[in-house]
Specification:
The complex is a heterodimer of chains A (about 220) and B (about 725).
Chain A: H1 16-30, E1 32-34, H2 38-44, E2 51-53, E3 58-64, E4 67-73, H3 79-86, E5 105-108, E6 111-114, E7 127-129, H4 131-134, H5 142-149, H6 159-172, H7 178-184, H8 195-206, H9 219-222
Parallel strand pairs in A: 3-7
Antiparallel strand pairs in A: 1-2, 3-4, 5-6, 5-7
Chain B: E1 2-11, E2 14-23, H1 48-52, E3 68-74, E4 80-86, H2 88-91, E5 96-101, E6 106-107, E7 113-119, H3 122-130, E8 133-138, H4 145-148, E9 167-171, H5 174-180, E10 183-191, E11 194-195, E12 203-208, E13 215-219, H6 224-234, E14 242-245, H7 261-273, E15 277-280, H8 283-289, E16 292-293, E17 296-304, E18 310-319, H9 331-335, E19 342-348, H10 364-382, H11 386-392, H12 397-410, H13 412-417, E20 425-433, E21 445-451, E22 456-459, H14 469-481, E23 488-491, H15 508-534, E24 542-545, E25 548-551, E26 554-560, H16 561-566, E27 572-578, E28 593-601, E29 607-616, H17 624-643, E30 674-679, H18 697-700, H19 702-714, H20 725-731
The chains are: A alpha+beta (about 220), B alpha+beta (about 725).
Amino acid sequence: MNRDDRKPRKPPGISRRSFIKGAGAVAAAAGLVRVPPAAADEKRLPAGVVEKLGPEATTIELSINGKPVALEIEPRVTLLSAIREHLGLTGTKLVCDRGACGACTVHLDGKPVTSCMMLAVDARGHQITTIEGLGTPSNMHPVQAAFVETDALQCGFCTPGMVMSVAAALERNPAATTDEIKHATAGNICRCGTYPHVFAAALRAVKPAPAGSARSLRATKDA
Amino acid sequence: MSRRVTLDLGFAGNTRDVTVVIPDDEPTPWQWGERLSVVGKPAPRVDGPLKATGAARYTYDIELPGMLYGAILRSPWPHARIRNIDLSAAEHLDGVRAVLALEDREIRFAGQEVAAVAAVSSDLAADALKLIKVDYETMPFVVDMDAAMADSAPRVFGSGSNVGRTSTSSVGNVARGLEVAANTIEAAYTTAVQTHVCLETHGAVASFNAAGDQLTVWCSTQGIFSVRDDLAVYFSLPPNNVRVVCEFLGGGFGSKFGATPEMIVAARLARAAGVPVKVMLPRGDEHRSTGNRPNSEQKVRLGVDRDGKLTAIEVVARGSGGINGGAGSADPFKSVYRCANIRTEERNIYTNAGPASPMRAPGWPQGCFALELAMDEMARKAGIDRLEFRRRNSDNPVRAAEYEIGARAFGWAEKNSAPKSDGAVKRGVGVASAEWHAVGVSGPEAQAIAHRDGSVEVRVGTQDIGTGTRTILAIVAAEELGLPVDRVKSEIGDTRFLFSVPSGGSLSAPSNTPAVRQAAAHLKDKLFRIAAPILSAEPGDLEASDGFIRVRTNPSRSLAFADVCKRIPGDSISAQGERVPNYEGFRTDQAGCQFAEVEVDTETGIVRVTHVVAVHDAGRIIDPLMARSQVNGGILMGIGFALFEDRRMDPQLGIMVNPTMDDYKLPGSLDVPRIDVTFFEVANGITNTGVMGLGEVAHVASAAAVACAVYDAIGAPVRSLPMTPDRVLAALGHA
């Protein structure tokens, strides 16, 4: 994709995104020198030794949804691209391509991160959970089920990222208030404007509604 | 061949009988107050689990064997001629399989398509774009609407004027109306260009067969059939040789009708490379080139008499749709309030900026903002309560009832008369009226199929833009067949199904549900003919409810629906339904109103919306849970329009300076107020389901209500959207 945006007669501003992609491009040309993450460190390299990766494709190991996977990728490949294009897990979405919208949110050791802003090689040694790892249509995570019950989705494109942010927030604090959920999802943009039902879903996932309750009907008021 | 049916139409306290002639094979319209089993009950959407688990497959998620990734090179210049394009270096890059120079030799906006590549990965495609050398002859350009109107301005289209045709309307005599007015106001209002920001960018996966005469396109579109027809024309293929598929769609908001450039590019690359090609636009291109809501400048004059009745409404409006037409915002002035003297004038100004496209109730949010803020300025000058002023000038009984419901739910009387705080944060309230005409159109056809295993499918060539179309159609078919919703599967998003109209302008629900209901009714008739001999009854004596087919006069004589299906001779039976033209109804318009409360920090100029009450009528509501989702979304998109969103062009460089999702500001979770939605159900007749659309009407008044509330809070109107802190401070005299 044309990511350099070719702004004429304007010095290129450095954004987080262009910086990370630039780092990738440099890596493609000259290789990438990194201090490996601690877990990989113990297995493969003595302490203090740095590792050179690329520029060509190289084999890395990641832990995705509890399973180890080996990938042959260029070091410039983002975690998002590794998940989607190399592993075929397409639930995680690319939307803003600069960490501004949260659609690519995955869990890194249980914490929400934007996978478009992280290189796959930097995810080595960490536990990655994607939306597919949280639950499946026939066996949904309580947060996913609550999203369905409260209609916390419209076009659905932001939904995987939104679910990951809410699930992480409730993992941190199962008694999270609407205000805390608002802050937890402040990095997730929904153009359909479905936020009020997302807040309702979070409250419902925390405290399951009794059978037959019309709680979902009060969704907007809960928010 | 037809029969007469009398319908009881309207709403409590305001009903009238209308007798309509309907075709014999058309189900009798659901009557006002008729007890329905699944229609009107909140139900989660049927494809919710797929969306909540990431299993829903959008165009962006389609991967085909051997598929290449396409990318588009765009002009950095707002106006230029292309002298030469050198593709050779890109063609020689390893992994690149097709390179195209696009035909347009004259560039009219920064972001216009110039060339395209297909390569084995998206990173390689991006690398290849950088190797294409384009020799541009740059030309003078203009991106500012006012500058574009000058005689000396660079022309966007050669010798043609930048100033489009003036479109006018006139009723009565506005000059006279102003002359006789006890009070008049005159003010100019502006709104900024808003971009759609569909989360799934525009894009397609295209695949030709080996012979090159069959094209299949998976694309993110609001109109699979309009895409099919456009592609058939472009590639000189019979429409039946083009198949368009859109199972899930990550937002459209009006920007995804017809075959868009990236779809054509994907198909051309696929033909050139001989394998499928996927083109999904990067975010910046989405902002710059796939459409936007034009800006507006609206000069408004109002006059009122001593009784607070409008004597004159005038608007002179202009806006720029970039290289497209489409600017215009006069519609609300013509119909929302009653006045004997109304004059409107609107013009589109061409500039070297990305093309406008329809966006959620085109023209209405702009016009409604200017009209409603002007109404408040008038009410203040004339010393009339703002809600009372609106009541006096509206002759729509639906809106009158909605004002009362909304005012009560919002607490208008207390909040509107509450004294302003002495502190820096001032609270204010506002109300604005909506309008739309979502009665739907004839054209769609539907198929309903019962299988031997007792399951039912409905198939329609529509698509779900996020409003829950799959679910709505399943609910309607389930109602007609007396089944729970989960027994019916909706299949949509494929031009192999029967024709339907694009999902836009609030067309989907009112256009598709009557066709589905008729198809289900025809299917039911066929099942009745199977069941009748077993139940020793005539088919006409049977009814379907609670999963059974029963003798109406003796409900104990029944067969389970699934048992009837077991007697289907083959594997399935199917029936078709069509959407008949609209019957005479109660009204063809929708009213609606929204009340907003804001807090304005008079030291920082920051506006926070704290509460919105929305009251809307959309005929019969099929699923109040999903309907409320739509209204929430309309309000929040309106808050974005009111407070944040602004496509900024650099007048020196002619480029969009904020084509990202951090620089182009969208409403987020922390901007969400308390929202209370009330549906005011009106039996409108018109179709066999009485359903109207909701997507547009829920958005029309939102920004206006917020603007009116800000005016109330600070005592000075902010006449430009978005109401950014600098504008609020300027209105307060702090600039």
